[in-house]
């Protein structure tokens, strides 16, 4: 951006400092072209000479055309500070977004608190949906609002029991521990939104894993999430998240 602004300011200076007796059309059209190229890349308005801005021979720019150009330049100069302000705000937003990690969880509050603790210790901000303000939003609207993150950690804990139904007595089915249905839904959501390299699943070793979501890092633990703290941090580092080393 700095290079674009430099070319814009140089074009403005060349136009303002033009002190020859005649304002030749070809010279000013070239200067305005440079001005417009930079303005377009910065999202600023462009300037175009009208027919009445030229002399009768169209070889020079008349006073009306020149003054119109100077007025346009004044507008550009007033707008330039807002360009830098927007850039700084965008950088700040990207920086804040890069620090936020969404934590999808079921009913295991201990595992949730352990993940939050790991993230906070390295300077990352855990986003836990039920801790966020409702602001009059429906659940799905709230989920969409707070899902603007760089990474998601999904906790698959043994909260439900299920089995593949077969035409046999229920007591004969092969029941297994499963994560809550909302957890699987949110896993699929972030798989699609962030891409598989930006989603990690921490699962208790006795939990059935989804069969059709591949390419995600699945990290098993036995009793506590803290057992796999360094494995989790490796995944975060691989995903290019910036955080403090332990």
Question: Any descriptors?
Answer:
single chain; 246 residues; alpha/beta; Rossmann fold; 5-stranded parallel sheet; 7 helices; 46% helix; elongated
How would you portray this structure in words?
Residues 100-222 form the CD-NTase-associated protein 12/Pycsar effector protein TIR domain. This is Putative nucleotide-binding protein. The chain has a five-stranded parallel beta sheet with strand order 2-1-3-6-7, sandwiched between helices. It has a two-stranded antiparallel ribbon with strand order 4-5. It has 246 residues and is an alpha/beta fold. Mean pLDDT is 84; it is low at 90-95. The chain has two domains: 2-94, no CATH class; 99-238, Rossmann fold (3-Layer(aba) Sandwich). Helix 1 (2-16) packs antiparallel against helix 2. The two termini are 36 Å apart. It has helices at residues 2-16, 25-42, 63-97, 109-121, 139-146, 181-194, 229-238, and strands at residues 100-104, 125-127, 151-156, 160-162, 176-178, 199-204, 217-221. The longest helix has 35 residues, at 63-97. The chain contains seven helices and seven strands, in the order αααβαβαβββαββα. Helices cover 46% and strands 13% of the residues.
